[in-house]
Sequence to fold (612 residues):
Amino acid sequence: MSVRYVAVTWNRQKRIYDLFLAGGVLGSLLLFAGLTFAVHPDATAESALIRGLGLTAFLLLHVILVIGPLARLDSRFLPLLYNRRHLGVTTGLLALGHAAFSVFQYHALGNVNPLVSLLTSNLEVESLTGFPFEWAGLAALVILVLLAATSHDYWLSVLTPPAWKRLHMAAYLAYLLLVAHVGLGILQDERHWLYAVALGMGVALVGGLHVAAALRETKRDREPGVAGDWIDVCGIDEIEESRARVAVVAGERVAVFRHEGRLSCVSNVCKHQNGPLGEGRIIDGCITCPWHGYQYRPETGASPPPFNDSIPTFNLRVAGERVEVYRYPNPPGTYVEPVHAGAFTGGLPPAPTPSSMAVGAGGGPPTDFYVGYHPNAPPSVTRFTRAAVVTMLLLSGAVITAFALAQRTFASAAFDYGHDTVLEGTIRSHPYPMLEVERPGEGQESLRRYLLAAPGKHGAHALIDGLAGRRARLTGPVARRGNLTLLEIGIATPLADSASGVRSVSPRDLGTFALEGEIADSKCYLGVMNPGQGKAHRGCAARCLSGGLTPLFVVRGVDGAPLELILVNQRNEPVDLASKWAGRPVRLQGRVLVDGDLRILQVDPASVRPIS
Fold:
């Protein structure tokens, strides 16, 4: 409300509040990551961090959206409402971290711009379950970051309170977008019933509290059915000293204040953030808003100097023992002579102290009063606020624990990041780059095949150019899952040509099959990223496959265990299915061949069909 920009000052209450907030966020991330690695030791740190950041941000948004209706239903939640913007900024930062790590993990280091990949890797808009959940998440992120960036009162002053309020109502749109982001994203991969139930309960909680608060407010907004311009709002004795009685006049809430035996009527809406002035009290001769402490003179509706905010005033009169208000407001800042309310026998009200500034319970007229910025909260407020914060932390911890333990998409796969393996063997480039390493034995059974990849989301063709059919020493980290192994080439050194002595054996033909499964990229699937398949990984699979990595078709065997087949076309050449089918459940038909320790699937690309 200042006529000039003044930086927000910190006080003891803010520091304690933010200490709880920072501790809660850090504890949430550590708890989720710790439980994830305890149950799934092969999970990658990037995946745990992405999920932990997203879950924490989503939980905080729930807290933000329920504080408002809780404060309307019980005024003891007002101290939390005062500091709600701190939660909003934290939520925006967490969401930004979640998005940044996700874009880098799934879309960077490929053959197109990461943002282009984000928007184009999944174009399955004709299917509800296949719809690109990333679009909803990106839209929600833009809103949350914008709200966090404009949360300071400086922007409220620049944009004007009505425009600022409308802008920040977009938090509800962001929430709906995030519900879609979660429902169309992680819930499509993690099919545990807990995820769907928890999401439904969260939506029901937010919606239910808002409906309950709206019904309560609707009852308060019933205007007296009296004809004429003067509206009977209450009896004189119904107004406590230095407090107000809220009523509806001509569709607008007004607050009739009683102070030192005189009555004044002003709009109930604070110019700062539409706070309920009628739930405040008069301190130092000024109406003080219970939300953030903004003040107005009761007779003029104007803020005391040096501030220049003002609210509309209303004419009123006393008819017998009843107070009547004229239905038409005066312009903001208009002086209205206070009306005598009868003999004032209480003397001057005592100056407010921390012990007498507590918020009342039950949502009705409070017996005490407390503004959140006050450095020393009364014991009753401190106890309730601490209990509320601890309860929220415990509930959040329970949700995080349940979500972490319910994860099922992590596989038994590993990637030796930071630890190089040295292998010597023969380079093969057809149909995909691989290294054949001889083992004791004869024929094809004496070979161990290693699929090859370049750093990032790229195939190894460029790194083995000129080495096909020759022996070489390759150095780099190894990824493994099941009977498949992949080496990410760091150094490729040609060796002197020498005969391997391996007798060529034709692949064994197992026949033609109709199969259902998912097209995955070999690098992520084998452990470089874990989980390395599913809808959340679809964009990464598209980038990896379009970058030349070996494609795999993953099906379930008769025992339920996954079987991986290397995809080629009917001429045993590389097949390009990345642009349309990467990461999608599909049905296809092809011939299965067994070539040593590898299974090959010769597929007709035209036979691929989506599974709805």
Q: What stands out?
A: Residues 45-73 form the longest helix (29 residues). Residues 1-8, 343-367 have pLDDT under 50 and may be disordered. The chain has four domains: 12-219+379-405, 242-348, 413-494, 508-610. The radius of gyration is 33 Å.
